[in-house]
Amino acid sequence: MSIVPKETVEVIAQSIGITNLLPEAALMLAPDVEYRVREIMQEAIKCMRHSKRTTLTASDVDGALNLRNVEPIYGFASGGPFRFRKAIGHRDLFYTDDREVDFKDVIEAPLPKAPLDTEIVCHWLAIEGVQPAIPENAPLEVIRAPAETKIHEQKDGPLIDVRLPVKHVLSRELQLYFQKIAELAMSKSNPPLYKEALVSLASDSGLHPLVPYFTNFIADEVSNGLNDFRLLFNLMHIVRSLLQNPHIHIEPYLHQLMPSVVTCLVSRKLGNRFADNHWELRDFAANLVSLICKRYGTVYITLQSRLTRTLVNALLDPKKALTQHYGAIQGLAALGHTVVRLLILSNLEPYLSLLEPELNAEKQKNQMKIYEAWRVYGALLRAAGLCIHGRLKIFPPLPSPSPSFLHKGKGKGKIISTDPHKRKLSVDSSENQSPQKRLITMDGPDGVHSQDQSGSAPMQVDNPVENDNPPQNSVQPSSSEQASDANESESRNGKVKESGRSRAITMKAILDQIWKDDLDSGRLLVKLHELYGDRILPFIPSTEMSVFL
Amino acid sequence: MDPEQINEFVVGYLKKKGFSSAAKDLESYHHQNNNGSSFTSVDYHNDPELTKLIRSFSQQEDDPTRYREGYSKLRSWAYNSLDLYKHELLRVMYPVFIHCYMDLVGKGHTQEARTFFNSFRKDHEMVHLRDLQKLEGVLSPSHLEEMEFARSLRKSKVNIKFCQYSYELLLQYLHSTVSTLMLGIINEHINFQVYSGQPTSSSDDIEAVTIVGSFQDTANHINQKEIQWGLLEDSLEDRLEKTGGLLSDSEKGQGESKDGDADDSKKRSTEIGKQGSSLKKLKKDKAGNATAKVARLETITVSPAPRVKPELALPVMSTDVEQSILEDLRNRVQLSSVAMPSVSFYTFVNTHNGLNCSSISHDGSLVAGGFSDSSIKVWDMAKIGQAGSGALQAENDSSDQSIRPNGRRSYTLLLGHSGPVYSATFSPPGDFVLSSSADTTIRLWSTKLNANLVCYKGHNYPVWDAQFSPFGHYFASCSHDRTARIWSMDRIQPLRIMAGHLSDVDCVQWHPNCNYIATGSSDKTVRLWDVQTGECVRIFIGHRSMVLSLAMSPDGRYMASGDEDGTIMMWDLSTARCITPLMGHNSCVWSLSYSGEGSLLASGSADCTVKLWDVTSSTKLTKAEEKNGNSNRLRSLRTFPTKSTPVHALRVSYAFFTRINSTIL
């Protein structure tokens, strides 16, 4: 009949005190109620349109009632939209969420903030028909423009023509912004401000027109400022922020960015002062490289192969400095364990034999060299370890490690912990680490022991890793970062593996794979064991370890 | 058929119709003289058609299911008919549908009417959604009486153009299926205009949309009237052209060198943009460019618009104002699809959902907003621009008492209305603000004194819109009371009342020559009224929902109107025909504005975009192009999305760019 059921009419009648409403009367009234409601709504919609709105509000209904000379219903024109709640148990019955408010609460509540006054802001929506890419404008066009340039690039390359409007409309604000960022990057005096700047770079929507300027800036400064460690680090942070910014379409500029990043990874010398921790910079750059490869590898198919070729060349060239080797190893390691297995492990044996003399304090007189060699050794070990860890992790989760095994692992930790002390002696003399850091590393084994007793489960598993990995542990300057790194290594590796091995292997396929890989991995493990001795063991997940042992 | 049967039919019919006594009389009469030979004046025996017809009368006259059956049969027949004639036949369906529905409602079969309506409403929702929404609420015979829309539908006939063959097809069908009910409805409510030849293409359907037939007749009749759409004699544009010649003579030596510059100017401005110089510089550059273009202007206006005499006594313009306008005109840059305008976007922030309307003065220096809390706020953009450097503004505040009477406020607050303000517009020189409100009044404010000058009472319902004439002094208003009125500033009584719209008059706009006003209404029509006589001289039919915005081209030849659905229609005033619908917006078109030369149309919409349309090309489009159907895309030049900000008002300023403002909610 009508959408207003007669029961509703009856209920309303009761609520206003009419108890003896005949059912027939209710039935007659129902269609009329619907008609009147529609009439009011029609007028309310007119009011809404003239208020230039597209959502109907209570005030529009009041306006419509006014038009019909009906007294408006008071108490609803609160401004905000109503919250409707679904009545439980009914499909399409709603009621307004009208909570009871305690008078005391209202009185005691602090005064609300005064509402902001109306203001006008002005900006250019378009300049001669072109929409400038400023934060006030919707970022739609901005993102689309580079895609077009890419297409043109591929077709017939009138690149300049198409990109011109974007450059052309570089507003004064953007220029100031760019200048400020550049200054901050160069000045290295105000770290908190610089951090803010990086956050802004990573999140602002209107920055797209500045991207070519930033890439240029970074390329220039990296090539000029190889001696300035702080600057390089700042620049790499900018790169990372730009990569993080979801509004920036950085693809067309990658070819400009990559050389700078790779330079920071495998350059012979980064920074001129002794204290400059270029290892950290290399690690950071390695992460950047892997990020870029992961995100844009699918678009630029040659990207990863070119990159790995560069890195492998750097690694396998014995004339290159150890620092360069280190960078190359870190870069390759960051690309995932498949890369490591294919490119590093295959070359591991000859390389280690080459590295051996450098490690030995008797043969190599230069302390610095020894230190570097150990760094490289550590990086290699880590890469290999993560690789084998990743491989073993492919196996489906086995039952959780038995406590007895944990003890075994700890036992090993103890056994090997003699090693680092030896090495540290050699390192300490040459290394100018901060005392505090050294303290941590010195404390390492003891701390583990005490924790072993107290028995905090997650730490127990990870701490041996730290111990058993002496080169990393003893020489890593930011030990805290490294420690967390090591802590995460297990979980992260799991993730890396998952994403890396994205070819969806079904459970059954996994099982097949296991038996095939089992031998393979076993062999690999044995080989690594030969090369590294017991140091590789902590990388092997405990359960698998029990299998292999 | 023997007389006995006939008697039965007649008696049955009378009983059905409720004439029981007459039926009894008849029966008794027949019993008395049983021979019954007196009835056979018509030869029923040889006319089976007629027999069936009569039989159907006596059969279940009241049965509501017959409507459903008849309609669904007709529908399936129409949908299965020949493709060539199908769209014509389908036009019949809508009137039949709504009249079936109203018949059912009228006879009290509310339940059946509802189910009938719901089962077939999908067919017509595309085109007639708004009407259906209105009709849906009609549930009892009294509603039919009460609702104006339904009444007008019942009273009038629908005109449908039919080609000869379609008409025959339809008649044939109706006769062969003996669907007397449908035949009755069609006869009663549809007026066929049969023409010979091939059926028209389906794209011409626009005229088929409007349902009120007699209305169409009057519209056609009215549209025969002559109108003088030309510009005024001795207008400033005229004078400019005269003086422009002189100017270009005197500047000839200079002008030639400038011409060369002008060609370069495009390049130069892009260079400047690259270097990122300030906006001011850009403006200056354009201004320099513009003087060179004035000379060109003459050559372009090959066919000048005809000149007419003003029918109103127009106010005398002071020489200062005249000079400044002339200056502006000279500086005007010709916009086209190649030379796109710049758009300056004013955003109202912190309006708390209260901004109802906004407008920009002709020179772009003032911006006014009308709010639902009865207030009007006026911003002086020049002052905001000056103090734009942020920190300085705060310091200036205390010293700048005259501008900011309430201390920290950056705008002038005008209080006086007692209901939501629905429009606020500036007089052409920008010294007055006219506002209209839900409190049924129109108020005149002075921007110099920041005070209310006059309150005009006359409308009986909320005044939706008020607009100054292009020369000031006179203004037009329109209201929920279905009238539009003409006022002059010095009288508190309206000079003219334009009545005729069938529903609210939602927007009003002056013709550039001041002799006409156009009104857009909720009855989906746009009307043009003669200001002097107060008569309606044009009715523009074609919109499918309420008309929200109007704009007149500067040469007075065309008009654009935007509606609730986002359709913009371009009309030729002299023929009252739609030149082209401009589709693209998908929500209400709040405002429209022509560029100074009339070559571009800007539209602002609730879908948070500003669109620019090339209207010169659309008027010159050949028939063939129009048939391709992709002409829409050609006309839409640019779309500027905003950051989810509905666009409320647009003004193409004299100089060179469009200004738009809007609100963040």
UniProtKB/TrEMBL annotation, chain B:
What is a GO molecular function of this protein? RNA polymerase II general transcription initiation factor activity
* Protein's name in the database: WD40 repeat
Query: Which species does this protein come from?
Result: Arabidopsis thaliana x Arabidopsis arenosa
State the PROSITE patterns in the record.
WD_REPEATS_1, WD_REPEATS_2, WD_REPEATS_REGION
GO biological process terms on file: transcription initiation at RNA polymerase II promoter
Bilayer-crossing residues are none
Cite the CDD domains for this sequence. TAF5_NTD2, WD40
List the GO cellular component terms. Answer: transcription factor TFIID complex
Biased composition (Basic and acidic residues) is annotated at 249-271
User: Which positions fall inside the TFIID subunit TAF5 NTD2 domain?
Assistant: 61-190
**Location of the region described as Disordered in the Swiss-Prot/TrEMBL record:** 244-285
Stored InterPro entries: TFIID_NTD2, WD40_repeat_CS, WD40_rpt
Output the Pfam families linked to this UniProt entry: TFIID_NTD2, WD40
| Keywords of the record | WD repeat
Q: Describe where the WD repeats fall, as residue ranges on this chain.
A: 348-381, 414-446, 456-497, 498-539, 540-581, 582-623
